[in-house]
């Protein structure tokens, strides 16, 4: 029997995760059955259960995958000298997430903001998922911290600024923006960038006399 390549295995795993994410975003975790996932991914039960034993493993894998993708984007930005300022970096990170995980719902809505809210809700019920989410956010927070350290090294931020506090504030901005996208729609990454740019310029307004 010919050996299956790692590339094939990775592609099959991605197919399953994308199908499950679409189901969860559309109908929620509890209203989605494994049969729904099989139909969405267009795979047999044996093919899916080779990778995941059930919905809980699928949910945890999706959370880990998304947060690892976000962390990778931020770590790449941290290696720039200097890193992009928040008004550039946050919209860019969201745009890259949309490029790398472009799945949409039937009405064309990008599904990940809605999926994010469902994950937050599910963590109140599942200590196991809360642990997975917490570990992933810790990695993202540290990546944001390295971006903030890059600002300090470039002289763009006070040397005594609390980089962990900066990281938490940046995460809160992204979470809040994603919640608005999921709940109200019609908001672009450009809008977030423009708002951040205006906030970063807050100070005494000069008036010509």
TrEMBL record:
Q: Which residues bind DNA?
A: 33-52
- HTH tetR-type domain residues are 10-70
Extract the PROSITE patterns matched here. Answer: HTH_TETR_1, HTH_TETR_2
In its keyword annotation, does this UniProt entry include Magnesium?
no
Domain of life of the native organism: Bacteria
Q: What are the alphabetically sorted keywords of the record?
A: DNA-binding, Repressor, Transcription, Transcription regulation
| DNA-binding among keywords | yes
**Pfam families per the UniProt record, alphabetical:** TetR_C_6, TetR_N
What InterPro entries has UniProt attached to this entry? Answer: BetI_C, DNA-bd_HTH_TetR-type_CS, Homeodomain-like_sf, HTH-type_TetR-like_transc_reg, HTH_TetR, Tet_transcr_reg_TetR-rel_C_sf
In its UniProt entry, what is this protein called?
Answer: TetR/AcrR family transcriptional regulator
Q: Which organism is it from?
A: Streptomyces atrovirens
